[in-house]
């Protein structure tokens, strides 16, 4: 996707990788995907201020006591990786500090390339929340 190459960022590299691995798409579909990703590349940018257009609230069961799951035990090396990923996400404005009676443990999920994906295990929290029946729309419904 040459048109995404101006000022290459990790996001550009990720989108480029996704494009290259979209092997089930026809050439015309791959071309449409490349154009779409190029046109809306700013939407995927995780660096900068949080979006003012969406705010997410978790609707709990009302009278359920807060759930504070303790952190999982990890090796010092993994703890260091977690701290670095957490600090970067905080610095990028993706998350913000808060004080809450609710807590969920963080986990590192190994990726195929040997690195880790930083995740939060919300399973215990999910037991206390109401199910959201609003599902995400399919890409085809948004861009026919």
UniProtKB/TrEMBL annotation:
InterPro entries: DNA/RNA_pol_sf, RNA-dir_DNA_polymerase. It comes from the Eukaryota. One of its GO terms (biological process) is DNA biosynthetic process. PANTHER family: RIBONUCLEASE H (PTHR24559:SF454), TRANSPOSON TY3-I GAG-POL POLYPROTEIN (PTHR24559). This is Reverse transcriptase.
């Amino acid at each position: 996707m040459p048109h995404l190459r101006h000022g290459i960022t990790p996001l550009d590299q990720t989108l480029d990788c996704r494009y290259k691995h979209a092997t089930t798409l026809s050439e015309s579909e791959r071309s449409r995907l490349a154009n779409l990703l190029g046109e809306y590349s700013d939407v995927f940018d995780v660096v900068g201020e949080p979006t003012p257009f969406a705010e997410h609230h978790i609707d709990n069961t009302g009278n359920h006591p807060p759930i504070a799951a303790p952190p999982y035990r990890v090796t010092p090396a993994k703890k260091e990786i977690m701290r670095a990923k957490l600090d970067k996400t905080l610095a990028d404005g993706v998350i913000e500090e808060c004080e809450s009676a609710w807590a969920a443990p963080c986990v590192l999920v190994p990726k195929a390339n040997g690195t880790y994906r930083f995740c939060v295990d919300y399973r215990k929290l999910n037991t206390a929340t109401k199910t959201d029946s609003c599902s995400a729309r399919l890409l085809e419904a948004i861009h026919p």
